[in-house]
């Protein structure tokens, strides 16, 4: 065995219920050899050459935090475009300020149009948030800004592209085009919206050279990894691998990892619709062939489906009584009646399914599908996961548990969005019960917490996610949204460590600090179990350790 490095700490929260605390952890070859105290590990220390590292002797170590649903490369790419969103946002040139409302956004677009010398060059922007910036944009509104320069605005949650007439022409659709996800005015004329993955992809094509500039993927990943370290994240899953290109995305990850010092483990979860377009009947063979390329730091995992719209852009599917203003939301590309047949090959192959469902109508459909898959071929330990699980009912939580399913939930919406959507979109009842974690806990369903960074107007900060889950404090700093849905600090900490690892089927390797597991830690300035739960989000993150290698948060 290689020389041991023994990290001492003020406190270690192992998340191993059998041995919950420790003060020293011995590491060799990237894995934990022993965890306990300098005394308890003497049988190892007497036999193996070692050094004691006291760097963290007054810090708190917890397992490296896991954000099980992000889009680091894709969102990092958008973050290189001109920004028109509501909150301050990282860009390649630093932090960019937010714009308060739609009028400010339109004024910014006007500035961008007038600053362009070449009239054939489009204005390509991202970050618009109809919920907090005062309603959707549309073609007529954008034609007022310019009816000659093509304007392209991607919503922050990138489920909608808003365009003006010159941009619609460049995309190549007309009022007569019939395709999924084209928005229309009541008279049938295109309104300039391209909604959900298929139509968004269509809208991206003519501006791809601006969105996907050479080298942008690698740059984006490096930038996003620094954000991850600052928030204690050591593992994440990219939940839409293949959105741009399976090869380029894989290669970019391989490039940053092989360069050395990349502080994250990444699971790439292939997007079903792209798998089908790209590989057709050979898609399972492709997934089998990728298995040999998996490493501890980069691996293919499961399959992803997207079956309705987004919470912040108010395009999810709701049961009765629906939206406040009669909106209908949108389904994904796979027709719901084909869902069982479409998921079947993956279910049959034993590939874990991650199925995006935000609204309660979509959750019903997803549970019906899971029930049908179970009756066709009963499976244990399938870990079928509903992604987001934003607006659900008590009955759905119980049925999810009964079917052996799990939920990967975005809790940030409770704090950042629920008051907005009480008035706009979903109404007070649905807004209040956003992210029903208490119900899932009572039902006995496994769940984890994710950020979807950076596609839903919020940070990637698992301790903030835990703080929201424990306190459910709305953005006004006073209102507690559905207090019965709050969970304990321990359950919230599990949801960003060991339970997140379980949902990603990596719990044999990460998520808790046990002998034999990978030596991934988040280094904290305070103990989440000792601190007032109202201050969870304020815990300083000093850095991370990945496979025994420290990464400082200020790097
Ligand atoms: Zn996502």
Q: What this model shows, in words?
A:
This protein has 555 residues and is an alpha/beta fold. Among the domains are: 4-58, Roll (Urease, subunit C, domain 1), CATH 2.30.40; 74-211, Roll (Diaminopimelate Epimerase, Chain A, domain 1), CATH 3.10.310. 33% of the residues lie in helices and 22% in strands. The protein contains 22 helices and 25 strands. Strands 1, 2, 3, 4, 5, 23, 24 and 25 form an eight-stranded mixed sheet that branches. Helix 13 links the parallel strand 18 and strand 19 (353-357). Helix 2 packs across helix 9 (216-230). The two termini are 31 Å apart. The mean pLDDT is 95. Zinc ion binds at residues 69, 71, 239, 452, 455.
Q: Report the major sheet.
A: 8 strands, mixed
Helical segment tally?
22
Strand content: 15-25%
Per the CATH scheme, the topology name of the domain at 74-211 is Diaminopimelate Epimerase, Chain A, domain 1
């Amino acid at each position: 065995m290689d020389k041991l490095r023994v990290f001492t700490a003020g406190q270690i929260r192992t998340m191993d219920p059998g041995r919950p605390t420790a003060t020293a952890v011995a590491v060799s070859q990237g894995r934990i050899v022993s965890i306990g105290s300098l005394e308890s590990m003497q049988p190892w220390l007497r036999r193996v050459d070692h050094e004691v590292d006291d760097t963290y002797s007054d810090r708190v170590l917890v397992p490296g935090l896991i954000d099980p649903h992000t889009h680091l490369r894709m969102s990092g790419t958008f973050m290189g475009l001109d920004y028109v969103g509501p909150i301050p946002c990282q860009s390649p040139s630093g932090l960019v300020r937010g714009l308060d409302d739609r009028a400010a956004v339109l004024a910014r677009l006007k500035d961008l149009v007038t600053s362009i010398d070449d009239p054939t060059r489009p204005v390509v922007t991202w970050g618009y948030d109809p919920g907090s910036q005062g309603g959707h944009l549309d073609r007529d509104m954008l034609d007022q800004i310019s009816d000659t320069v093509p304007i392209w605005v991607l919503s922050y949650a990138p489920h909608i592209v808003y365009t003006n007439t010159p941009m619609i022409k460049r995309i190549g659709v007309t009022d007569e085009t019939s395709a999924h996800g084209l928005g229309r005015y009541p008279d049938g004329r295109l309104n300039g919206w391209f909604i959900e993955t298929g139509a968004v992809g269509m809208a991206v094509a003519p501006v791809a050279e601006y969105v996907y500039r050479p080298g942008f993927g690698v740059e984006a990943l490096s930038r996003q990894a620094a954000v991850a370290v600052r928030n204690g994240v050591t593992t994440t899953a990219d939940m839409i691998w293949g959105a741009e290109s399976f090869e380029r995305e894989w290669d970019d990850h391989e490039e940053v990892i092989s360069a050395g010092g990349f502080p994250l483990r990444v699971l790439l979860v292939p997007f079903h619709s792209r798998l089908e377009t790209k590989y057709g009947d050979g898609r399972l063979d492709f997934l089998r062939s990728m298995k040999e390329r998996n490493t501890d730091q980069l691996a293919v995992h499961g399959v992803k489906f997207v079956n309705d719209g987004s919470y912040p852009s108010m395009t999810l599917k709701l049961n009765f009584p629906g939206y406040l203003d009669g909106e209908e939301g949108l389904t994904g590309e796979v027709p719901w009646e084909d869902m069982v047949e479409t998921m079947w090959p993956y279910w049959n192959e034993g590939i874990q399914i991650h199925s995006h469902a935000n609204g309660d109508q979509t959750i019903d459909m997803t549970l019906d599908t899971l029930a049908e898959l179970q009756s066709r071929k009963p499976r244990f330990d399938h870990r079928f996961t509903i992604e987001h699980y934003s607006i659900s009912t008590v009955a759905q939580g119980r049925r999810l548990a009964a079917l052996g399913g799990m939920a990967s939930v975005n809790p940030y919406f409770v704090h950042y969005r629920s008051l907005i959507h009480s008035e706009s979109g979903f109404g007070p009842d649905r807004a209040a019960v956003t992210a029903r974690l208490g119900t899932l806990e009572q039902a006995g369903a496994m769940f984890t917490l994710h950020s979807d960074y950076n596609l839903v107007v919020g940070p990637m900060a698992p301790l903030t996610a835990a703080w929201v889950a424990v306190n459910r404090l709305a953005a006004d700093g006073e209102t507690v949204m559905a207090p019965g849905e709050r969970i304990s600090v321990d359950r919230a900490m599990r949801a960003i460590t060991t339970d997140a690892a379980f949902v990603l089927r990596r719990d044999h390797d990460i998520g808790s600090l046990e002998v034999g597991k990978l030596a991934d830690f988040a280094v904290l300035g305070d103990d989440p179990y000792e601190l007032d739960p109202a201050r969870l989000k304020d815990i300083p993150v000093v850095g991370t350790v990945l496979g025994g290698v420290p990464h400082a948060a200020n790097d």
